[in-house]
Amino acid sequence: MTGRELEEFRAEVREWCRAHVPSDWRQTQTGASDAEFVRFQQDWFQQLRAAGYAVPHWPVEYGGGMPVAEQIVLYQELAAHDAPRLVLAFVAVHHAAATLLAAGTEEQRRRHLPAILDGEIWVQGFSEPGAGSDLAALRTTARRAGDEYVVTGQKVWASGAQYADWCLLLARTDPNAPKRQGISYFLLDMRTPGVEVRPIRQATGESHFCEIFLDEVRIPADRLVGAENTGWRVAQQTLGAERGLTMLELAERLGNAGFRWLAEACAPIDDPVVADRLATLEIELTGLRALCRDLVERHAAATAGPADASIVKLYYSELLQRLTDFGAEVGGMAAQTVVRKPMSGGWESGAWVLDFVGSWEWTIPGGTSEIQRTIIAERGLGLPRA
Asked: Is 242 a residue of the active site?
C-alpha cells in the first residue's frame, strides 16, 4: 500500500470521525445507568460496523480484511478524535473471535461470529480465587455426563460479566493430569441454570469486575472448543489476541487525550520540575507508541519475538501508573473530589485519582509486572530460570 493511499484512507477516517463521534459522549456517559451504558455501547458498535471499522482485524469473509497499515491509521484517528472505546464488545471481537477462528468448529464460528456483529456480548472466565497469575492452578471442574459436561466452581475478575450473553470458560476435566494438561475450554451460555454473577464494587465506585459462581452447570459437549484436555493451548490463542493492535489502540489513546488533559492540568507550566516531568512523560509516550506500531508490523510479518508482547504490556502498564499518578499530584485537592468518570472511556479520562486507582488493573491481571519481567528474561534474553 502506497503512502498516498494511506493518506487518502486517513482523510476518509477523519471525515467519518468528525461526522459520527459524539461530541458529548463523555458527559452523557458520566453517571449513566447500566441500561444507558449498554445501549450507547451497542449503538456505537453498529455505527463502526456500518463503516467497516468495527472488526478490521477479522477475515474478510466475516466483515474484516483491512490491511494492517490501515488498521494502524484507523486506531490512530479514533484516538485522535477521542472516540468512545468498545468496552462491552472488547472480549467478543478480540478474545472470542480469535479463539473461534483458531480453534472453533465451523458450526461454532457460524453461530457466534455473526451474532457478535449483531451485538452478542462475551466475558472471559479464566481467573479464579487463588489462581490468577497462576492460571493453570484453576480448580473449577467439568465432569462428562453423556452429551454434556457438568461444571462446578468459581471465577473472579470477570470484566463485564453482568452484561454478558456468553462466556469463554476454562475448567479442569482431568484432575489427575499435570496442571496444564487436564484443562478444557468451553463456550458457556450465561443464561444456563446454575450460573450466578455477582458484581464486585471497586475502590473507584465502579463494578467493572465480577465473580461468576457455577453450580452444577450443564454445558452441551458440542460447546467444547478443541479436544478435551487441550484447553491450555486454546487459551494461549485467546490471550494472544491482547497483543498488537489492542495495545496500539490503548497507547494511542493515552498519548492523545491522556497527555492532552495532563498538559492542561499542568498549565500554566511555570515550575521547571513540572515542565521536566511533563517532557519526560511525553518522550516515554512517543516511545510507547512507536514500540506498539513496531510490534503490530512485526506480528503481521510473523517476526515478533516471544517476549515482545510482554515488553509492551509492561511498558504501557507502568507508564500508565506514572502518568496518572502525576496527574493526581498536579491536580491538587480538586482532583481528589472527582468521584465519577465516563463509562465508555478508558484509563485516561482526566479524573486523575480514579484513573490512578484504575491503573493498577494493568500491573496485576493478565500477568503481573513480575511475571512479565520473568518472561522477558527467560524467553527474550535467554536467561536461566531462577
From this structure: yes
Q: How much is the mean pLDDT over the chain?
A: 94
Among 53-57, 234-238, 281-285, name the one with the lowest average pLDDT: 234-238
The phi-psi region of residue 165 (left if phi > 0; otherwise alpha if psi is between -120 and 50; otherwise beta) is alpha
Which of 77, 128, 242, 361 is an active site residue?
A: 242
Please state which of the ranges 102-111, 271-280, 347-356, 359-368 shows the lowest mean pLDDT: 359-368
- Range name among 49-63, 229-243, 258-272, 280-294 with the lowest pLDDT average: 229-243
Measured CA to CA, the distance from residue 205 to residue 207 in angstroms comes to 7
SS (H, E, C) the chain: CCHHHHHHHHHHHHHHHHHHCCCCHHHHCECCCHHHHHHHHHHHHHHHHHHCCCCCCCCHHHCCCCCHHHHHHHHHHHHHCCCCCCCCCHHHHHHHHHHHHHHCCHHHHHHHHHHHHCCCCEEEECCECCECCCHHHCCCEEEEECCEEEEEEEECCCCCHHHCCEEEEEEECCCCCCHHHCEEEEEEECCCCCEEEEECCCCCCCCCCEEEEEEEEEEEHHHEECCCCCHHHHHHHHHHHHCCHHHHHHHHHHHHHHHHHHHHHHCCCCCHHHHHHHHHHHHHHHHHHHHHHHHHHHHHCCCCCCCHHHHHHHHHHHHHHHHHHHHHHHCHHHHHCCCCCECCCCCCCCCHHHHHHHHHHHHCCCCCHHHHHHHHHHHHCCCCCC
Is it the case that residue 134 has pLDDT exceeding 90?
Answer: no
Integer Cα distance of 78 and 13 in angstroms: 8
Average pLDDT (362-368) is 82
pLDDT digits (tens, 9 = 90+) for 224-258: 999 999 999 999 888 777 667 889 999 999 999 99
Q: How far is CA 229 from CA 148, 291, 307, 380, in A?
A: 15, 36, 26, 29
* Closest residue by Cα to residue 344 from 122, 20, 39: 39
- According to the model, what pLDDT value does residue 263 have? 95
